[in-house]
Design a protein that fits this description.
Length: 89
């Protein structure tokens, strides 16, 4: 089962099924079918996106690391500012 979930073809199939359900709901005006579209879309976003688009996942990871480094530096500057301000009192 784990091997199936890590296959690009499986997640591509999930996308096509979601699109088919969405199109069916538009044609038949059965709006409750969009619940299944949303569930499949969210499943793809959280589980299938890194598998299908590995380059984008690498870029996202690099951006997250860069942002975390920036936040750590900013937190250090803020804490040193507070310490210096307290020391002046």
């Amino acid at each position: 089962m784990h091997k199936i979930l890590n296959a690009k073809s499986f997640w591509t199939f999930v996308c096509f099924v979601a699109f088919f359900i969405f199109t069916t709901s538009l044609i038949t005006k059965m709006w409750w079918l969009n619940v299944f579209t949303m569930v499949l879309g969210l499943a793809f976003k959280y589980y299938g996106d890194p598998i299908c688009f590995q380059e984008r996942a690498k870029l996202r990871k690099q951006r997250e690391e860069k942002m975390q480094a920036y936040l750590d530096k900013r937190q250090e500057l803020n804490s040193s500012y507070v310490r210096n301000k307290r020391a002046r009192k």
